[in-house]
Amino acid sequence: MIFERQDYQQDCINNIINLLKDFDFKKHDANNLKEVFNNFLKDKVSAFGLSDKLNIDILMETGTGKTFTYLNLIFEINKIYKQNKFIIFVPRKAILESVKQNIKLTKDYFYNQYKKHLKTYVYSDIKSLSAIVNHYIKNKEGLLEEVNYNSYEFHIWCAPINNRPNILVFDFDPDQNLDLSTLRNSIKLFKKVLDKQKEL
Predict the structure, then answer these.
(1) Dihedral pair phi/psi, residue 158, rounded to 5°
(2) How far is Cα 152 from Cα 132, in angstroms, rounded to an integer?
């Protein structure tokens, strides 16, 4: 299968890679991330404020290739910053199947680029809760809530079980008829829930 990278996708990846160049991945310090953001945004116009949390929010419209973009970004972050554990949460089983299909379809493409394959684990129900917690997250209550809402998660490259994830990706993939302001408000609400989970 032939994949054609779009300029805006590559710009997104390059911006994140450049943004993270001075980030200390060993400390995972929110102040360091804020400083990195401030340095990155010095000569740029931004409509978003900075928080004291370890978050980088990337918004892409439905149908613009965001799954391909964040899969590509995973490979780039692994290659450049040697990070090897990523978690992807998706809100519905249909999106999970789409992400799995994307991983399958892009397997050879990314292997040709990076000489690596993604190793994935899917957790999708209450039976998976202890496996998720044992693999990477300490806050059982927060994960229970995600499982109850049919969230799913991938564990990529089989990273050590006692480390925290390097990156969390939340793929909302809303209906194309959903009002943009409703989506933004939903994401802000979701972010407030995450901000309360200090372990994340």
Answers:
(1) 50, 60
(2) 10
Tokens of 146: 């995600």
For 109, which DSSP code?
Answer: H
pLDDT by residue (tens digit) across 67-125?
Answer: 999 999 999 999 999 988 888 888 777 888 889 999 999 999 999 999 998 888 777 66
| One-character DSSP codes across 69-107 | HHHHHHHHHHHHH----EEEEBSSHHHHHHHHHHHHHHH
Q: How far is C-alpha 109 from the chain's CA centre? A: 20
- Residue 187 burial class via C-beta count within 10 angstroms: exposed 0-12, middle 13-18, buried 19 and up: middle
Q: Is the pTM of this model over 0.85?
A: no
Long-range (24+ apart) CB contacts under 8 A made by 192-195 are 193/145, 194/53, 194/55, 195/51, 195/53
Phi and psi at 150, nearest 5°, equal: 60, 35
For residue 172, name the pLDDT band (cuts at 50, 70, 90): confident
Burial (0-12, 13-18, 19+ Cβ within 10 Å), 134 = exposed
> Tell me, what's the pLDDT at 48?
59
Q: Which of 98, 154, 101 lies closest to 124 in space, CA to CA? A: 154
Contact between residue 128 and residue 62 where contact means Cβ atoms under 8 Å apart: no
* Average pLDDT score over residue span 22-45: 82
